Amino acid sequence: MEMREARRNDVWVLALKGRLDAVSTPCVRNRLQERIDQGGRRFAVDAAVLTYISNSGLALLLQVGKQIQERSGRMVLCALHKPVKRVLEITGFMSLFSISARRKRPFRLPVRLTLFEPPLKRLTSLQRKQFSEIFRVSLILAASYDSAKQA
Description:
Elements lengths: L1 E7 L2 E10 L4 H13 L4 E12 L1 H16 L3 E5 L3 H10 L6 E3 L24 H26 L1
Parallel strand pairs: 2-3, 3-4, 4-5
Antiparallel strand pairs: 1-2
Helix pairs in contact: 1-2, 2-4
């Protein structure tokens, strides 16, 4: 996994290349946490060359997205690579984040949905069950990561 970052005005741009999995997630988590602790509130994750995302990567996006939102911030996923986009579609995560097809000026897009407020009224009952299960598993993964980190 390669990670590059840059600050453009008040937006932290994090470009990820390779695999966001159990091995690389802690490094990305630490980098994002450093920027959040420094007062960063707007983040653009450039995933144009991110080739794979695992459950731990999905859990990372949920945790960091929630933390940023709690601080009145925003995270946008930009230029999703097809395999990663497909995983986000299958898991229902596309509706949880602001997604930009372009790399430049991702924050010019209107906020469609905020994290953890899915449009449940528009989902079928099967989709609601799937979303709930994905969310539950992601929280379990995040909690197990946090407890392992503290041990």
